[in-house]
Task: inverse folding
């Protein structure tokens, strides 16, 4: 089983297209969408349709906070631009598409892999895995050997040893990393539709379950068209220009 | 997390037992951390004819994080290493059944027994230094720092190539460092640990050069430069205590060799050789070693100096090197092949410009200026001209003159700029041989444009085109700009 882990698409059609093409060429057999399908970007309908199609053919999808707040109201604590984008998104999704987002589970498990948007200790609380402390908390909250999370937009790998020591690692794209079975791992592939580490290329990760190897990938995509779509939708300029900056 | 108690009990290993298609033949070694068995494949693999060993961790009842994590590290790192200087990786075993690593068996003993024969002949020590530094450079270029370089981790293939073994403490730039947070004590082997390793810095490839320096010092003098400390306090002594100069122990050690070894043992990694290849180059080409007061030292500096250094060491935090790959990339060996006799002043100037541009962007670059004296294939050459000056010295003087503006502008100090005069019947061959031998990353040489070559020259192929055709590294051909 070769998993393609795609997270935080945020209505970015061009990024998702590029990533799906890349994953298919790489031989992915199981697609997993780690939430935040919508929010910030200009093509929510298209993205939701794509994911619905993949799910109908066996893909796994879990709910992100942006997905949740599209069908429920966004809290006051949410940033202005984000809230504006969610309100706009809500108006541009059909009832079927909205129901799909509403019915997404908070987490799913497949063999020794756990898929959840924010963290494993309180998925619906949407707390961020900012560093080793939260990673350790999440890893201790599950028996699964491999946890795959989204929510954080930068690619990251955390691990927990048998002695309870947690480590973190900023991965190198394209490098095959063996996830040895003597410890637990927490994988954050990074955002497909809105990377924030200064590199505009879309993130995703490939996990070869049989060989226990993981590869973080960066896939360049047509940023200009994605930005133009955001502008045409009348959404804040910041949401368009940040794509080219990878912020 | 799977607690140790829930892991399957390690199998008691017996000859004849088969694990994942590998049959255990004979237990070769039982170390503190691992058993090593010779193994054969139950079903031979087509195209694989090398003898194999299986390394199995020796987990001493209950919790044994040091052994376990070290083994995990080796399992993670070995598969990505390539080349002749590491044992070829074959297979690794899952921890949920039986952890193991199967790899190529390197015949013969490690360098450890030879340590007992120290002091060794000087030439042998130099030779060992070259072989091991060459192997280390190959590893550093692959983004790996070994971090436990010592005689028992060094073996040699029949053809003399050094092989590094035991990667349980190593760190790879592009793989998670499982040891980073694991232990409270500095990791490594006491006598060989670099000062920065004592301070928990694990990302400087020059740490391996320190360890190599310790080893060469011991092989050369029969003594350990920093003793064999068993406490952290003892380990910290190397942050401020100076080793006794080798020449004080063994007077026939040449000054250049003391210079090279003491440079390896500098507390500040920035004062050591920027790369293992540059260390190897110094060992191969002593004529290029720039001598400093290190070469002349015959005793350690006094108590006051030691006290000053101790005081300075208390608050120090080591500078982070970044990554192994970055350090190596910043420290290329550039070779300027300069035809001082025949090149026009304009070409010499253009050559200087090209070299200047190349070296400016690499803070750790080493510039080797090389001139070649063409000697006849048979018969004796005139070694001196009518005024009695040696041709060799004349070449050297001309080379240094050519390089003078570069040395001044680029602030090339501390052995970064060296001069070498080669004597050979075939100039192109000599240049390429030097470049291959010394792991040169970039050859910069002047090329005369086609129209200016005589018919015979064009037919035979110029020196520059020959170098371009036969060298293994990047070559820049410099031409002088034509006058408008």
Result:
């Amino acid at each position: 089983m070769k998993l393609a882990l795609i997270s935080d698409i945020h209505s970015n059609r061009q990024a998702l297209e590029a990533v799906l093409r890349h994953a298919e060429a790489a031989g992915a057999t199981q697609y997993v969408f780690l939430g935040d399908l919508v929010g910030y970007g200009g093509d929510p309908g298209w993205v939701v349709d794509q994911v619905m199609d993949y799910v109908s053919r066996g893909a796994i999808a879990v709910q992100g906070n942006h997905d949740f707040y599209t069908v429920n109201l966004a809290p006051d604590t949410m940033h202005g631009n984000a809230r504006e984008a969610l309100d706009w998104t809500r108006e541009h999704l059909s009832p079927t598409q909205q129901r799909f987002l509403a019915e997404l589970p908070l987490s799913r498990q497949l063999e020794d892999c756990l898929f959840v948007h924010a963290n494993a200790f309180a998925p619906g609380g949407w707390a961020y895995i900012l560093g080793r402390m939260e990673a350790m908390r999440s890893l201790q909250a599950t028996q699964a050997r491999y946890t795959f999370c989204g929510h954080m937009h930068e690619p990251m790998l955390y691990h927990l040893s048998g002695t309870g020591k947690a480590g973190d690692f900023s991965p190198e794209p394209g490098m095959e990393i063996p996830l040895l079975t003597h410890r637990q791992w927490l994988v954050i592939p990074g955002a497909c539709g809105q990377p924030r580490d200064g590199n505009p290329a879309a993130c995703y990760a490939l996990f070869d379950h049989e060989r226990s190897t993981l590869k973080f990938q960066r896939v360049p995509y047509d940023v200009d068209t994605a930005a133009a779509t955001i502008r045409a939708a009348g959404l804040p300029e910041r949401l368009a220009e940040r794509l080219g900056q990878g912020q | 997390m799977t607690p140790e108690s829930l892991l399957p009990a390690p199998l008691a290993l017996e000859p004849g037992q088969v694990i994942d298609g590998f049959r255990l033949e004979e237990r070769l070694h039982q170390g503190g951390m691992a058993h090593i068995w010779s193994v054969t494949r139950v079903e031979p693999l087509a195209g694989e004819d090398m003898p194999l060993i299986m390394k199995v961790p020796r987990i001493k009842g209950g919790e044994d994080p040091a052994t376990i994590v070290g083994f995990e590290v080796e399992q993670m790192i070995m598969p990505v290493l390539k080349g002749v200087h590491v044992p070829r990786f074959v297979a690794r075993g899952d921890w949920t059944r039986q952890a193991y690593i199967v790899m190529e068996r390197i015949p013969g003993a490690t360098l450890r027994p030879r340590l007992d024969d120290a002091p060794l002949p000087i030439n042998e020590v130099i030779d060992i230094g070259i072989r091991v530094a060459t192997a280390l450079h190959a590893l550093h270029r692959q983004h790996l720092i070994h971090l436990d370089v010592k005689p028992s981790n060094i073996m040699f293939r029949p053809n003399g190539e050094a092989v590094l073994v035991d990667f349980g403490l190593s760190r790879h730039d592009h793989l998670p460092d499982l040891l980073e947070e694991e232990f409270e004590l500095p990791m490594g082997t006491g006598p060989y640990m670099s000062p920065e390793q004592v301070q928990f810095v694990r990302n400087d490839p020059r740490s391996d050069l320190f360890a190599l320096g310790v080893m060469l010092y011991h092989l050369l003098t029969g003594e350990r430069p920093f003793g064999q400390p068993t406490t952290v306090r003892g380990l910290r002594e190397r942050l401020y205590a100076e080793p006794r100069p080798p020449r004080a122990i063994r007077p026939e050690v040449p000054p250049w060799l003391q210079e090279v070894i003491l440079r390896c043992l500098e507390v500040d990694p920035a004062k050591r050789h920027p790369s293992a290849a540059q260390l190897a180059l110094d060992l191969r080409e002593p004529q290029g070693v720039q001598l400093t007061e290190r070469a002349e030292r015959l005793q350690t500096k006094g108590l006051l100096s030691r006290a000053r250094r101790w005081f300075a060491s208390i608050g120090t935090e080591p500078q982070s090197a970044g990554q192994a790959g970055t350090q190596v990339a910043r420290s290329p060996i550039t070779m300027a092949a300069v035809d001082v006799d025949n090149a026009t002043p304009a070409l010499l100037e253009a050559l200087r410009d090209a070299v200047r541009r190349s070296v400016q962007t690499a803070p750790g670059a080493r510039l080797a200026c090389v001139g070649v004296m063409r000697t006849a294939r048979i018969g004796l050459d005139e070694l001196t001209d009518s005024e009695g000056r040696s041709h060799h010295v004349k070449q050297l003087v001309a080379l240094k003159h050519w390089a003078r503006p570069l040395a001044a502008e680029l602030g090339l100090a501390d052995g970064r700029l060296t001069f070498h005069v080669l004597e050979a019947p075939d100039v192109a061959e000599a240049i390429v041989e030097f470049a291959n031998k010394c792991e040169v990353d970039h050859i910069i040489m002047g090329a005369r444009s086609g129209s200016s070559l005589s018919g015979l020259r064009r037919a035979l192929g110029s020196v520059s085109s020959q170098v371009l055709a036969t060298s293994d590294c990047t070559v820049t051909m410099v031409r002088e700009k034509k006058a408008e």
Remarks:
- The first strand of chain B starts at residue 18 and ends at 19.
- The CA atoms of residues 228 and 234 of chain B lie 8 Å apart.
